[in-house]
Amino acid sequence: MSLKDQLTADMKTAMKGGDKERLHVIRLILADIKRVEVDSRQTLDDAALLGVLEKAIKQRRDSVEQFTKGGRDDLAAKEQAEIAVLETYLPEQLSEAELDALIDRVIETTGAESIRDMGKVMGAIKSEAAGRADMGSVGARVKARLNG
Known about the structure:
The protein is built from 7 helices and no strands. By secondary structure, it is an all-alpha fold. The termini are far apart. About 15% of the residues are buried.
């Protein structure tokens, strides 16, 4: 079952079960997917759908940070709940050790020696770890490895 089919099936289940919060989040992400499909004039595959999910999660994490700084813990909690729903559709996340091993392997295979090679390294990691790691934290780790 494709990710889009899974989302649609879960939307129907949430409707029948009366889970309004989950239904709301699933409808939002399906609308995002539809918008991207219309804009690009093509049907998205699961890899592209993961990109849409990751973007939605990143936006919500940014919102949580802003709401927390602004003292709006109620809105931050709502965003956190939405993140939790969206994360259920991501593949299993890489462990810290797996991520470190992947970074080391990519640095070795690309021959990266300095921070100037970061784009090359990040491109290779992004293709291998799509949906399975937060690329923001991966970028920080790569930067630390290439600097020192």
